[in-house]
Design brief:
The chain is an alpha/beta fold. It contains 9 helices and 12 strands. Helix 3 (about 105-115) packs across helix 9 (about 295-300), helix 5 (about 185-195) packs antiparallel against helix 7 (about 220-245) and helix 7 (about 220-245) crosses helix 8.
Amino acid sequence: MRVGVDWGGTKIEAIAIADDGQPIARLREATPRSDYDGCLATIATLVSRVEAKAGAMGTVGVGIPGSVDPLTGIAKGASSTWLNGKPVEADLRRALKREVRIANDADCFAVSEAVDGAGAGHHVVFAVILGSGAGAGIAVAGRAHHGPNNSAGEWGHNPLPRQDVTEIPGPSCYCGRYGCLERWVSGWSFARDYHEHASIDLGRSQPLAPAEIVARMRGGDRLAKLVWTRYIDRVARGLSLVVNTLDPDILVFGGGMANVDELYDDLPVKLAEETFSPCFYTPMTRALHGDSSGVRGAAWLWR
């Protein structure tokens, strides 16, 4: 039996799966935000509870919203910034009283989809998350590819390629830079773009949710269509870097924007225009396991 934990910014989820991938038990709790010790305690409690429900102890893999220094086990680059600088690897081993395998949450997503999801049967899977942020993970032969710095897949913290004058320097990012892809291709950025130009919504203090903007687009809202077209253009420019450099066997999408059906009609056409090669045959699909992929992939770290 394998146990996976998804240490997210808003929720912490644990799952126990059988060797064939079938779920046995699953629990989640709200993340104690900005409370590192509280997060460790929540993880230990959730693992204990899912193992009690499953009636067995298992290996434990944990997906975090960042990565760890491969030499020191210190967390780095986490969007849940209270993890950064903490000895996450050692602290999780101590809290769970066993060895733990840790990976970036997007890497876990990639592994899940590569093992028994939408990317099964493909050698190199590039899994893209377009949610409240934007990131990616790489799986090769069903295993997460990390690199010597544990930095593989940090697609969202590259600059948007071929920026026009309206995109320079770009919005500030929590990483301290400006114009990161995450600030252009997340669901939040799509909503922000519409909100900044929608005069009919000037009285709103908060942007519409992306799903509401997509509904307006489908209803004939011209601005929503223009914003969507610009969003697709930015996603395509960003992914052209991936195709030109890695040329993965498949692109698998997760996150809220992956649920927009038009993505799979409009993005392939635009991405084909942006890549160096005059041919573009890479399949694109949404994740088979949806929101469950991250926690499942954490469990598969012991595969």
